[in-house]
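TL;DR need structure tokens for one chain.
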Amino acid sequence: MSKLILLNKPYGVLCQFTDPEGRPTLADFISEPGVYAAGRLDFDSEGLLLLTADGRLQHRIAHPSNKLPKVYWAQVEGEITDDALLQLRLGVTLKDGETAPAEARRIPAPTIWRRHPPIRERKSIPTSWIELTITEGRNRQVRRMTAAVGFPTLRLVRRAIGDWSLEGLAPGESRCEQVKMPAIPEAPGKPRSRKPSGNRRKRPRNAVAPGAGRNSRTRKPRR
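>> reply
TL;DR here they are.
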């Protein structure tokens, strides 16, 4: 079993344990030694962050090849349109290429904690919330995706990663879970060698022993 820490990372906290500039870091919330984040969460984003000391578990969570779904709640500027949601579902073009299709839907404003500091809202422009599920992990991907379809992200909260969610965690709170990792399969290799047989062939009982020949001395039968 491997230990996994689920942390609700607050806004304005660096996803690392030290900072030469003295900004808030994970060390302000996590005292467990030897753990590190499985994936990252931006300084200005909030929500679920997973930490572990198990390299295999970290790889299983964070590596893009595993396509672990990540669910985000994004408060965007403006009333999100059906056309924009469709673009997000189909994939949008970013500077580093086309994104994979995502799950995107409009949601009511979730009942969650207030952010400190609060977002900057403009009275003349409303805001709306969407739930976006992606399987990639590009830098600031959700923010770039919503901006690409014309609705910049004002607040971003990661709600879930795979089967883990921030349910029941207030900002800065964490809990530990035990995760059962599958056994490591044996790597294919050379078959086990049998004990050497010496490559000696079995001689018939009446065969002449090696080295016996015309120079060998033979015993004359007794009379």
